[in-house]
Specification:
By secondary structure, this protein is mainly α. It has helices at 9-18, 21-44, 51-71, 80-107, 110-117, 119-132, 138-159. The longest helix is centred in the middle third of the chain and has 28 residues, at 80-107.
């Protein structure tokens, strides 16, 4: 949430004061996310409810409908290459990840699922850097491995 410069509580407080809406929405989303998965597991009885694909379709259609309100009329042209990339992003990283997460939360081991979810940022960074032909810097590698090390430490501490 900090564009550049030092990371201090004062800068975070100033950012929140300047534009509090994203912080409120992120807080509410985290509460809704936690409630959804904990309550769907409890109330679903281990049955795959399958609400995620329906939610994605509905949310996508709503966002497509309100897009011109916020961005105006689109002037870009779709190409076959752009359409294939769009479908890939919609189906694989987004839809399938949420469907698999939903199944894992309903039927799987939460600790194992959370541990493996820490690998997603690293895999995403590596795949993006290969696709866009961008070298990953030293600080990004260090940060990625620190996240993975933290996940391993958490996993070990839970089972011991």
């Amino acid at each position: 949430m900090i564009q550049s410069g030092p990371f201090t509580l004062e800068i975070i407080r100033e950012n929140i004061q300047l534009n509090i809406i994203p912080y409120i929405l992120a807080f509410l989303a985290s509460i809704c996310w936690g409630l959804y998965y904990n309550l769907s597991r409890r109330w679903g009885g281990g049955v795959n409810i399958g609400a995620i694909p329906i939610f994605f379709l509905g949310a996508g259609l709503i966002l497509l409908a309100v897009r011109p309100i916020f961005l105006g009329i689109e002037t870009s042209q779709w190409t076959l290459h752009a359409a294939i990339q769009f479908l890939y992003v919609v189906i694989f990283p987004n839809l399938l990840s949420y469907v698999f997460w939903d199944i894992g939360m309903l039927k799987g081991d939460h600790t194992l699922l959370a541990s493996f979810s820490y690998l997603v940022p690293l895999l995403s960074t590596v795949i993006s850097s290969l696709y866009f032909h961008v070298m990953i810097g030293l600080y990004m590698w260090i940060a990625s491995f620190l996240v993975i090390a933290g996940a391993i430490i958490c996993k070990i501490s839970i089972h011991d």
